[in-house]
Predict the 3D structure of the following.
Amino acid sequence: MAELKMVLDGAEVAAREGETLLELARRLGKDIPTLCHDPRLAPFTACFLCLVELEGKPGFVPACGTRVAPGMRVRTDSPDIQAARKLCLELVMSTHHADCVAPCRLQCPDSIDIQTYLAQVASGDFAAALETIKRTNPFPSVCGRVCPHTCELACRRNKVDEPVAINPLKRFVADLDRAAERPHLPPVAPATGKRVAVVGAGPAGLTAAYYLRQKGHAVTVLEMNPEAGGMLRYGIPRYRLPADALDREIALITALGVEILFGQRLGRDFDLPGLKARGFDAVFLAVGAWTSTALQLPGEDMPGVLAGIDYLYRVARGERPDLGRRVVVVGGGNTAIDAARTARRMGAEVTILYRRTRKEMPAAAYEVDEAEREGVKMHFLAAPLALLAGSGGRVGAIRSQRMELGEPDASGRRRPVPVPGSDFEVAADTVVAAIGQRPEPRDWADAGGPGAAPGATKWATVEADERTYQSKIAWVFAAGDCLTGAATAVEAIAGGRKAAISIDRYLRGLEPLPIGKPFSQIIGRLEDIDEGMFAQVERQARAHPRELPVAERLGNFREVELGLDQLQALAEGRRCLECGCAAADSCDLRALAERYGADLQRFGVEFQHRPLVADHPLVIFDPNKCILCGRCVRICLEQQGAGALGFVRRGFDTSVRPSLEQPLLQTDCDACGQCVGSCPTGALAARQFLPKAGPYPTECTQVACGFCGWACRLGLEMVGRRFVRAGARPGEHHNRGNLCVDGSFGHRFLETLPRLRAPGLGRGPARREAGWDEALRAAGEGLGRAARGKGVAVLQHGPLTNEDAYLLARLARGALLTPRLAMLDAGAEPFVRAGLRPGLRLEELGEADRVWVLGTDPLERSPVAGVELRRLALAGCALTVLSARPGRLDQAARRVLRVPARHQAALLRALAAAARGGGLEALEEVGLASGVKAPLLLAELEALGAALRPAVVACDDLADEAAEALLELLATLGRPDRLLVLRGAGNALGRLRLGLHPATLPGALRVDVEADVRRTREVWGGAAPGAVAQAAAWTPADVLAQVRAGAVDAVLAVNTDPYGWPFGPLAAEGVFSVALELGPSALAAGADVALPAAALAESAGTVLADDGRVLVTAAARPPVAGRGLFEVLAGLAAAAGQPQAFGRPAEVWAEIGRLRDGLGGLGQPGGLRFWA
Amino acid sequence: MSEAVKTKILVGLGACGIAAGAQKTLASLEEGLAARGLVAELGPAGCMGMCYREPLVEVRRPGQPGVVYMELTADRVPRLLDEVVRDGRRIDEWVARGEGLTGAEDSFFAKQHRIVLRNCGRLDPERIEEYLAQGGYQALGKALRTLTPAAVIEEIKLSGLRGRGGAGFPTGTKWSFAAAQKSAEKYIICNADEGDPGAFMDRSVLESDPHAVLEGMLIAGYAIGATHGYIYCRAEYPIAIKRLRIAIRQAEAGGFIGERILGTDFSFHVVIKEGAGAFVCGEETALMASIEGRRGMPRLRPPFPAVEGLWRKPTNINNVETFANVPWILQNGGAAYAALGTAKSKGTKVFALAGKVNRGGLVEVPMGATIREVVMDIGGGIRNGRRFKAVQMGGPSGGCIPAELADTPIDYESLNQTGAIMGSGGMLVLDDTTCMVDVARFFLDFTQKESCGKCTFCRVGTKRMLEILERITHGHGREGDIALLEELAATIKRGSLCGLGQTAPNPVLTTIRYFRAEYEAHIREHRCPARSCRALIAYTVLADKCTGCQVCARACPVHAISGEKKGLHSIDLARCTRCGLCFDKCRFEAIEIT
């Protein structure tokens, strides 16, 4: 490839002629962002995000479409470029009407991934839901009880009926975990050697400890109280939060190895410099806000006047302070309500005085309602003026005055203004002042002299950065109430978690970064959203947790709220509207917008929500998320040749629509899913069959696709054991990221196909479930018996790994001593033999100068191979199609020879004769008969013969005769190695070469070659490979005929039924039958032994692609019935009397290496990449 | 009877004439001639340029110079037939112009120099004979018989002709690029997708003198070695398309189009491709995509059409006006053409003069004439005696040039300096009642709707700019809006693939540049200085001028005006829609806009 010199960002570089600036930059490791470019497609230059500057051009140029030129001087980064890219992303985002992250999560102070856990609950995957919550919150059981759950205020379901019961669901999964034998414990990273002191075992401190410990740091918590929990234990009454719920979650934190030292008070028992001196690398201050705000009224120091938090603290410690009969609580926050309800439980008459109205109360509305139900009286618009002494020096009454609401104050609430002359008195034996709390700066601020500790703010809180949690003392961090002032538990937990991130960064020597909310586009505030958007949503009432009846509450501290049951939880999970995008974590647009700091609100625009297009069984299109990059349109046209999608309308109203604005199903759509794979946002998505689309934390397993012989490399994304979607990345592996309908969507069978879940013994009514050992013994012994009798027939169909195929061939020939070994999807017989020799590789095909394609249109039968051929043809390679029926590849072909199937063999034979230099009569004759003129055929033949690098690609469903003639033609031309057979069945080439065919022995040895048979015998320790050469492959009819003729005593059928092969009736024929099947088929039902099989995607091993390429494939999930095929086949062999020593699939290759030199390393990582 | 002894009557049947009722005039003439038993040759002609005086009828009596009569509606036909055709007299008060006479409209032509429009209105476009009689196809013959393709290109280069589609790329140079490509197949495309609102130069030329365009294409085809030509014409020009079809048929019959033209080895075929009217299809790469049957979306250049054009073959694309110049240049020599104009802009340019000017129409001036000459001398000044405020040059991609710069000579470089462009020749004259923010909004509204939707900046950026302009004209402008407009405009210009996006912000940028105070008045004072933005004005009745005539009250479509007869009227502003009818109708200037 010619190189040329040019300048990229000031440095001289060698560019390759014809490459684009984007390709050059990426090759040199420079990152240029793009949304519309896909390396498989011709440059489109639409999004303009990849814009760069070219010296001498006033405008920007798109790097994706601009080709290199000698002397070109390019800048890929500059303030102008940055600004333009940012603006570009802001403009794109202004048309991207979607939420990346659901509003509930954005609302949550702790950014809990609510949508995900709701989806997991909806699927019944409660443990996963708990794990999701615990990624950001170690106190779900606590929060599920005490959180004010503002998430539910943001829930869009408010626009439909009622919000989803987000918090009760959290409690539900947490309580399940709490009761579980083995509750969730996160893994702990290896020890880092760093030590952190956490001051305060409240929610902030314990949370930080939990996450810091997971990072491998040693954590010691210092707590002044005798028990851990802080305000959770001492500030929240037990009827809201039973001690057990708190204890259990704290126990799970200490179980990670977090040490808690009790009775340790900062400023009394230790100070900050002391901690440093004790070898702590960092200190986390989470000391809370324990000092009550004084009423500042005369008489406040009288007996009978209590601070709210002190009262609750004493009750929590088991004291029963003497309250007298009448208790007045001053204040409207949660502490006031807690104090009032607690006092009620202790038998007092309780009155709350609050200077504003109920609407302004900071306490949770639910708590206020419950207090009222429990008999607490409320005086609103009443402010205390003075505390009046009663008998014995104790408080006796409180004088108050009426208030009215004036103008809004700084907090946005209307300011209470006294009504003159409205004084009144309320009798009180006890007054509880609960108007606020603050931290106590003396604890930390003065320790160790000036500059040795963080200072305090004017609100008495710790002076520290509210986004990094770091104080001016680099190793001291703070969060929770002592940083924010008194706040909620979830805010403290969020602070603790985020502070842990900062502390971890600090300990690793990194600068702490501000930690904010997840980056997200938002379609609007709840109040601004048009309800019409949800017109289609079915109304469904919210599930309400059971409650302790009011009558049973007084005089005790039994928990009031009793939680949801499982049915309620499932239904509630399904009520989620899934506002957040399932593709949020894979979305290029979101990632780039965040990276470039795009201001998503810069163009505050109105947007008409458009309905989802969900009329296709596999693909869902959300036009609101489409950014018109055109990748779907172009991949459909350019790669797939279908052109099912296009642009309609102009300007800002341009949109992507199926061609002619038909439903997608009525277009030429192949349902290949390439559009979904190419979409850089979540606009195109594969339909899910879990109740909710996610997003889920998935694990991606790289497998070889088994739906045809091309063996595309793809990733199966699994949620636990459940399949979610399949995908491939552009440019990856030999399929270059392309997939067909089967690759994209076929693996749904993992979820949808009914499966055999346990072995079964006995036929018909006698069928019973059996254990694996029993079933394998019965099967092995029965087959072994038959082998010693008239023999066994072994039938196989569908993809197996090479290793499993070898075991099956070894079982059949070595243990069951049968030559009756039928691979039912082997394709044209002559191609079976051709498969034993090296064929054309994909790379060689790519360099071909002349290509013939024979048989069924590859775009139909091996679609990704078809895409490859199409690409080749469009790049200028002369491609001739010889087929009976029109196909889509025709459009790209230089010439199409339409030859009816019945004439194909004769035509190919005549061509072979002509190639031998024989007469042309035959050619003319077949030309006349088939309608293709002889001179044309001759010209094609000459062109193929003259080509330097010819290639012949044939589908294996060519008729046997035609296949034979084709081989003859290639032999005559002296190019037998230039054939690539596209096999219709998964790993067909591998299965053939590993001996699953009458004519082949493992290792691509042949039964008709004496040396091959001898070698096999030697390796297998004298066991005779079923040595009789079979004349031809078997058809199902042959098998039936043999069975009926009484030629065999038993049949072993592996995976033969999904396509409806007629083996169901075998049972009736009186032979012993073993069915190794995926599903409960007729054959399995009628077999003497039915064994559950594992699918290829559930098997680990290797697969051969059509061109001999070796692909390592992993098991995306464990086999459904507990045993993989490898174990099952080994078990069968053992039971049939041929024990084998293969513990792992890779071990079979050592033995195969002895059968045929050079194959031994094939199964090893880094071993052979080709078995040509 | 030979041509010379028959009276010839030509009726201007361009789209402008038809719109003014020329079809009725033609029918009356036919009828009247028959009724009077008069013999005359009656035929259509194209646009004579004086669109403001349509219908126009030229009468050529044998042996006498032709006289053009103006505003000749059907009711004037009998007098014309009686006095002029039958009696051989002249109706002086109707004469627009005539050779050797003083016509009312002579000054319209005084500063014009008509090369492209040389035959427009002077011949029957549906008869090739008339074109031939004017020397038509002689340039083609000269080229084919006496010049090599290279010599043709040299001649064009010598003339200094630059692309009249707007960008002004030297035509000879462009031809030489395509000529240099080795390919058995090459194409000539005539871009007749005239899309600027208010522009009608190309349509008039095609309607009035189609053969001149065909001849230009043929010469270009010969010069670059092409054998096929496409005329990409919008389907909204049915008359042009009809006349082109007739012209092609006649030229084929005459041996000017087809195989072995004029007996030489040169063969050339012409096909008309009707466009669906997308503005962006005037962009050459989008135009080619459209011809190929794909969505009209521009693509990145290079490769340029000269290298990889239609069907991926070398292609030369010129605009109608460019081609119409070519035969004249070949016949009169490149030097004669280059003698006209300025140092870098040679020859003439056709403009569609429109807006608040007294004489709107099709004018052709030598390059270097000033805007003031066109507006004041040819256009006859501003209508209703209002103040000349600005001209919008170059259509929606162009810019507004303020009256202060009216002495700017019309050439590519001078216009570019003002922030406007030559464009394809739209010239819209604005007076002091025009709001410049609203003008910018109007043109941006057009371009954003016509964006192909491909590039982010053009598709979304122009929409966002439009929204900002809309809120400004509605009085909801925000501080910072001008800066935001400027940032968007600058980035859209730099970050768009084709000319549409690269120029769409021009009207905004030039109005901000020359009329920033108007923007600021809208944003800060919620005031429209031109009193044009409806949301920002109010109509009131002046007590000292109102006579109580009730005309305004009757005219008001929403009954917002009340008042006793002979009493003071008043306007209910809550009901008033600011349509301005009262203002227009009042004969006493008693309505005031505030």
User: Anything to note?
Assistant: The first helix of chain A runs from residue 21 to 27. The interface with chain B takes residues 43-49, 51, 58-62, 65-67, 83-84, 87-88, 91-92, 94-95, 603, 605, 628, 630, 646-647, 649-654 of chain A (CB under 8 Å). Chain A has a mean pLDDT of 91.
